[in-house]
Amino acid sequence: MSTDTAAEPDTSFSQRLWREGEPTYRQILTHPFLLGLADGTLPREAFRYFVVQDSHYLRAYSRCLALVAGRSPVEDAVRTFALHAANAVDVERELHASLLGELGITEADVEDAGVAPTTLAYTSYLTSVCATGSWAEGVAAVLPCYWVYREVGRTLVERSSPDPLYARWIATYGSPEFDAVVDQVLTVTDALDVSATEQARCREHFAVTTRYEWMFWDAAWRQYAWPV
Ligand SMILES: Cc1ncc(C[n+]2csc(CCO)c2C)c(N)n1
């Protein structure tokens, strides 16, 4: 991995990060979970697993955003990430109220299911980077969650889904409102002042969390549970 940034003066930092995740992103678009979501053939059990694990994910993710907010040296970024941390909590409540309700899943079911291996691995990685890495490393680690969902949303919204529940999920991430949210984070990312060494770490975190995004869908597709 090159840490030489001077050779590419016209490439924004976010574009350089995206390059690290792009090979994984291409595989995300063709993952059977997302193909099934778009054509309506995704088994309900896989979607149910996803929504339950996403509830656990969002709890940890909102705390990561609050950490990134609190550690930001830039006031605008404090505001952006603190708002998004609150929104992530609201998204979870909204999920509970609508999707979980329609799937017949209760709060007790979410607790009983517990945190699955991939959810724990992804959220633990995010939490450790946001708590113990530099501020820029935290931003790079949380970014794929936003960016991958925007790109997936944009791609799927053109096809939508014959299943109204899946269509609703797609519409959330394919909306202009969500587009604006992601733009705010990309603006923060492109304003980061990072050394070459720190850039290399950021690129690594971005690559890892993009891979975890793929794994999160894959775990739901395979209903992956603790082996022992
Ligand atoms: C595994 C997983 N990854 C990303 C998202 C999307 N997402 C969750 S919180 C947030 C930002 C603030 O609301 C975004 C974009 C998800 N739901 N689940």
From TrEMBL:
Keyword Transmembrane helix attributed: no
Assigned GO CC terms: cytosol
EC top class named in words: hydrolase
Location of the Thiaminase-2/PQQC domain: 22-222
A UniProt-annotated Pfam family: TENA_THI-4
Keywords: Hydrolase, Thiamine biosynthesis
Domain of life: Bacteria
Pathway annotation: Cofactor biosynthesis; thiamine diphosphate biosynthesis
Function, as annotated: Catalyzes an amino-pyrimidine hydrolysis reaction at the C5' of the pyrimidine moiety of thiamine compounds, a reaction that is part of a thiamine salvage pathway.
Name listed for the protein in its UniProt record: Aminopyrimidine aminohydrolase
